[in-house]
């Protein structure tokens, strides 16, 4: 597993950092979280010989890069959209993450491993004694084959996109259509747009070059006038259980291709139109300087799936995803101690510019 992609946020998560939704740490275990992280930060914690351990912290996990393997420890946090404050909940989520991600990366996800404490209080991965936590274990993918890096270095080829299109087509063809109602599907966009507006128009944020209200108004008008396009997708059985967070940093162009780090904590949020996921992926590729990737994949998937959504619907999906990503970028700044604080407003402005383009 390469290092990118551990902090993915996807459609439907809500304003994850609103005052009412900020996480609280569990006091369930008498083994402090800090002690677990300190133990797993040591090369000696792992069965294989290591020179060092690289640690990545995200909103919901600590990730320990241990040479050829990756270990992910869930934080005991609570948000409006998930609750990891119990050992049972973290174990269940680890197992669900394993099950779901093996759909598209079966060789990458190794298993679920307990973190135990013996009678003397010593911690051990996979050891005997009281289980105090659980970790997802993965094989580390080559960083130089991650799609975001390949795009940035302008190394993506037509054969890469052909292979990716084939993998995604097989995935979507095998997925069962959702029973979500047309009304519920369309309402999801309306509800999320209300949250988009509440964050993007906060006084402390300076994004969109003063055009933010006009952009939001236009998007909301389109959600109303084109509601029938959204409803038709559900009525025609086009809403499937997808990946949920299909971004370049979650795709590794190995042989076979591995697509990992899906949105595992909510099935409802994985219920998507494949072409919504593809416009999202295409938008993220555009941000990385590869504007042709999205249209190429959409054209290839349309042929393979026998489905050709209108340009107007694709534009609506793109605009909505761009505004959502702008919101989630700014939400980082609502953290008490945001990482990379200078990054988020310029990135949000880039997403908003893409939204404007998609609506015209």
List the secondary-structure elements in sequence, H or E: HEEEEEHEEEHHHHHEEEHEHHHH
CATH arch. level architecture of the largest domain: Alpha-Beta Complex
Seen as an oligomer or otherwise, the chain set is single chain
**CATH secondary-structure class of the largest domain:** Alpha Beta
Mean pLDDT: 91
In a few lines, what is going on in this structure?
With 360 residues, this protein is of the alpha+beta class.
Task: Describe the protein's architecture and organization.
This protein has 360 residues and is of the alpha+beta class. The protein folds into two domains: 19-140, no CATH class; 147-358, Alpha-Beta Complex (Aminoglycoside 3'-phosphotransferase, Chain: A, domain 2). The protein contains twelve helices and twelve strands. The strands form four sheets. Strands 1-2-3-8-6-7 form a six-stranded antiparallel beta sheet, sandwiched between helices. A two-stranded antiparallel ribbon has the order 4-5. It has a two-stranded antiparallel sheet with strand order 9-12. Helix 5 packs antiparallel against helix 6 and helix 9 packs antiparallel against helix 10. The two termini are 39 Å apart. Mean pLDDT is 91; it is low at 2-27.
């Amino acid at each position: 597993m390469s290092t990118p992609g551990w902090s993915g946020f996807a459609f439907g998560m809500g304003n994850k950092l609103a005052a009412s939704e900020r996480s609280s740490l569990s006091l369930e275990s008498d083994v402090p979280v800090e002690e677990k992280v300190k133990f797993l930060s040591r090369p000696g914690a792992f069965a294989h010989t290591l020179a060092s351990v690289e640690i990545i912290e995200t909103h919901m996990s600590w990730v320990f890069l241990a040479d050829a393997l990756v270990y992910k420890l869930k934080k005991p946090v609570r948000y409006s959209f998930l609750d990891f404050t119990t050992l049972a909940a973290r174990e269940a989520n680890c197992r669900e993450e394993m099950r779901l991600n093996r759909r598209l990366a079966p060789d990458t996800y190794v298993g679920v491993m307990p973190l135990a404490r013996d009678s003397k209080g010593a911690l051990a991965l996979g050891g005997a004694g009281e289980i105090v936590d659980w970790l997802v274990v993965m094989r580390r993918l080559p960083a130089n084959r991650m799609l975001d890096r390949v795009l940035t270095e302008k190394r993506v080829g037509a054969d890469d996109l052909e292979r990716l299109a084939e993998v995604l087509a097989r995935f979507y063809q095998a997925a069962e259509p959702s029973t979500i109602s047309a009304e519920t599907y369309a309402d999801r966009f309306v509800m999320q747009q209300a949250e988009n507006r509440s964050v993007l128009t906060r006084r402390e944020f300076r994004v969109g070059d003063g055009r933010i209200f006009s952009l939001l108004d236009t998007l909301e008008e389109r959600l109303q006038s084109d509601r029938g396009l959204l409803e038709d997708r559900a009525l025609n059985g086009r809403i499937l259980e997808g990946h949920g967070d299909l971004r370049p940093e979650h795709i590794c162009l190995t042989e076979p291709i591995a697509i990992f780090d899906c949105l595992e904590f909510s099935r409802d949020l994985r219920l998507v139109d494949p072409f919504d996921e593809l416009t999202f992926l295409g938008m993220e590729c555009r941000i990385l300087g590869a504007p042709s990737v999205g249209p190429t994949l959409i054209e290839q998937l349309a042929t393979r799936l026998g489905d050709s959504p209108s340009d107007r619907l694709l534009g609506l999906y793109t605009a909505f995803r761009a505004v959502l990503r702008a919101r989630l970028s700014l939400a980082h700044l609502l953290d008490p101690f945001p990482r990379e604080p200078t990054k988020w407003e310029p990135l949000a402005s880039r997403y908003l510019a893409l939204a404007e383009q998609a609506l015209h």
